[in-house]
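As a warm-up, study this chain.
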Amino acid sequence: MLKVVHTQSSPVAEEAHEYLYSYHHEAAGDERQQAIVLGALFAGREMECSVRSHWMAYPSLKLACQRLQAIIGHQWRLADDAPPLIVECIEDATLEAIRAVQEDGLKANHVVAVYLSALADCAITACSYVTTGAKGKSRVRWTPLTMPIDVWALGNSDMEIRIEPGSKLSEAYRDGIKGQLLTQIATPTEVGMVMRNYF
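Now compare it with the structure written out below.
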């Protein structure tokens, strides 16, 4: 069991919200297991039908979501009352894709680019927070996009995890992280579509 502390939106919070939960990691290479976990996260949510319909229409987007889940995990969240970040990212991407079709009448390949761009933009949020773990007198830091938060936590068991706002990311750094992330979750052609239209 890991103790997780979220601070408020300011670097120096007046109080911290604390709650307890366990990290459970599914093997990153087990796509079937990832799909099961990902599907379960949306069961009963308002956006469930829209999310699943986009996955059915564009199977590559579901695969991209599974790959993103393997990177940021399925329990990393920005506040104790917030849904997992992976859920926020997928719902944001779905809403952006719906808006693009309704307002711009985009074709299928552009819908994929809009979705992936929004998915990556939301995931970059993790990079603007500092996540550290304290074990005794030592403190280790999780580097976003290098491994799932749950894998990192299991490798540093019996520690308190603290999530707090970091410094504002520069535009160049955000673009770099976005490109790095896209290459890990999408095909070269899909990455090219995003870069041509949304960078």
